[in-house]
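Journal club prep — side note

Before the paper discussion, L.F. wants everyone to see what a predicted structure for a comparable chain looks like in token form. Sequence:
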Amino acid sequence: MTRKPPSLPRDSAGLGLRRVHFDDLLVDVPAAISFMEVAPENWMEVGGAGGRKFRKLAERVPLVCHGLALNLGGYAPLDVAFLGKLRSFLADIDARFYSEHLSYCGDHAHLYDLMPLPFTGETVRHVAARIRQAQDVLGMRMAVENVSYYAQPGTELTEIEFLNAVLSEADCLLHLDINNIYVNSINHGYDAAAFVRAVPGERIAYAHVAGHHYESEHLRIDTHGADVIEPVWQLLTLAYAEHGVFPTLLERDFDIPPLAEAVKEVEIIEASQAHHFAHHARARARRLAHV
């Protein structure tokens, strides 16, 4: 690997870039937004006025890229030509991170959905090899995101065992989705707090928080179409306490509110990060006072 982009400050709070907010952002990027996330597939080959707006924004705010179509878990060969174009795009916009979903989304055609992987040793080895191949082509370390899922095909490992095994075998980073942990814990009956404690904090590149749909007491649907609920904020607080503060981004894909409303949730992230930094600073001062 050859490219090591500048990292984000650990207390960075971000927002996913949506076209409905573009004009407002070009006038002024709210102070709470330290970085933004884009799907590279949506912007890599965009020209004209839209492309110029995007490049102008990329000069104003640090960007991370979160992919949709790499198909890490699939069996069709990785699209090396796409990865080559992606490498140039990431360098061109100075992307801080590139992440993809720990799932599959195609075979000989794109499925336009994120399908669950079997939690098995064979799948660990298969996916890890494809992540290593992608990292070699990209010339940089990538991150993989723990995804929401509604079926468990061929399970041999728990979700956290599978995730940690892939991260270790591929030697990649973790894109930690806090909302997905909560949704999966309800749908599959596990302890969300134990999951958060068990992730390798040193591998966290950045995190997502998002809202979801309440279908029933035992079924939540990951929609990114609602406000973040209190239990998800509490999980984020726990993650900061366990692993230290890390860059965290609000993900909102549907029923997108005006920018000023979305920023209010980004400010909650910012406040939580500041609280944890202050807490650790006070604790360090107390320890030094007793030396």
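L.F.'s comment for the group: Residues 259-289 form the longest helix (31 residues). Keep this in mind when we get to the figures.
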